[in-house]
Specification:
Blueprint (H helix, E strand, L loop, with lengths): L7 H9 L26 E3 L5 E5 L2 E8 L3 E2 L2 E3 L2 H7 L4 E3 L4 E3 L4 H14 L8 H4 L2 H14 L11 H15 L2 E2 L4 H11 L3 E2 L3 E3 L3 H9 L3 H17 L1 H13 L2 H6 L8 H6 L3 H24 L2 E7 H4 L5 H7 L3 E3 L2
Helix pairs in contact: 1-6, 3-8, 5-6, 5-9, 6-9
Length: 328
């Protein structure tokens, strides 16, 4: 079994934590929204220019990525290919996860994962949501996923992820981020080392038990936040996807981003164990890039624009630690 199974539900919830609601009040429904139009960014695009971090003769290039991106966009990695000629190591955005090779642990993880997918007390959404929120969920389901009744039997935080996937697809947005995979493929082709640190999960079964014990109120808050976003904020998300493709970092800075995505993150990270695991995964990237920058003349790193920008983002942290940071 893949070790990533142990954190799959955490990733699902984090992916569902879209952005804060703006504009329309939460009581509004998708039935009153304007017809959905796909984001149109066709053809080949390079995305934003790379940030450059320096200390002495050592250089770190950072490619900021974004999810979702336009479905019809083809990423043109010319700048990355040029940087790889001067790079000794590539650092991906996230570490890999490990739970050990014990087959008994793997079986226990699988069993617990199956439990996590079941709704609390096996109750359908209609019985755990308030009538107004359930009506909003049904309106989105009827509009973007007609005929599929699987949502009714999902726990609220996984229903949030399913709804988001359907609406993103209708909006011309792709959730799967292929940019990093392309970078890693190019690095392998050019013989550049990939530093894929492994974050060992010492207690994967307990992690899943903690997620399964997420208070129902937190899950419902997560679902409501996502529903509000899907009703009101798809256009800003399309604008961010378009801005990334066109390399417009000023627009990316101005538009809402992941620092405001709190409800779903709060729901899944109520457990101290899960919260520490997420923090370790985030901290490991900064540790890895600083170490690689100190050892190599050239390093290329990949990271989400959401985690790079802002007064508490990784770029601000690197500046505060005395590095020279230049970028778009």
């Amino acid at each position: 079994m893949s070790a990533r199974t142990a954190l799959a539900v955490c990733s699902a919830v984090l992916a569902a934590a879209l952005a804060p609601a703006h504009g329309q009040q939460p009581g509004a429904t998708a039935e009153t929204a304007a017809p959905m139009e796909e984001v149109l960014v066709e053809g080949r695009h390079e995305g934003p220019r790379l940030w450059t971090v320096r200390r002495g003769a050592h250089t770190l290039w950072i490619l900021g990525t974004l999810t979702p991106l336009p479905k019809k966009m083809v990423w043109q990695p010319d700048a990355v290919q040029e940087v790889l000629r001067h790079t000794q190591e590539v650092v991906p955005a996230w570490p890999s996860y490990g739970i050990g090779a014990n087959p008994i642990t793997a079986l226990r993880v699988y069993i617990e994962w199956r439990r996590v997918q079941k709704p609390p007390d096996n109750l359908p959404l209609s019985q755990v949501l308030t009538p107004p929120l359930y009506a909003r969920v049904r309106a989105l389901e009827a509009r973007y996923d007609p005929g599929d009744r699987k949502l009714e039997q999902m726990r609220p935080m996984l229903a949030a992820r399913q709804l988001a996937a359907r609406v993103f697809d209708a909006a011309g947005l792709a959730q799967k981020n292929e940019v990093q995979q392309t970078v890693l493929r190019l690095a392998r082709e050019q013989g550049v080392r990939i530093r894929q640190d492994k974050l060992k999960i010492e207690d994967p079964v307990d992690v899943l038990k903690d997620v399964n014990a997420t208070p129902l109120a937190g899950e419902i808050a997560c679902l409501e936040a996502v529903v509000t976003v899907l009703e009101t904020d798809i256009e800003p998300m399309q604008a961010r996807a378009r801005a990334w493709a066109l390399g417009d970092v000023d627009a990316l800075r101005a538009l809402p981003h992941a620092e405001d995505r709190t409800a779903c993150v709060a729901a899944v990270s109520g457990s101290d164990r899960v919260r520490k695991l997420i923090a370790r995964a985030e901290d490991n990237w900064l540790i890895a890039v600083e170490d690689s920058l100190a050892r190599n003349a050239g390093t290329l790193a990949v990271q989400s624009v959401d985690r790079l920008l802002g007064e508490h983002g990784a770029l601000a942290t690197l500046r505060a630690r005395g590095y020279s940071v230049e970028g778009p």
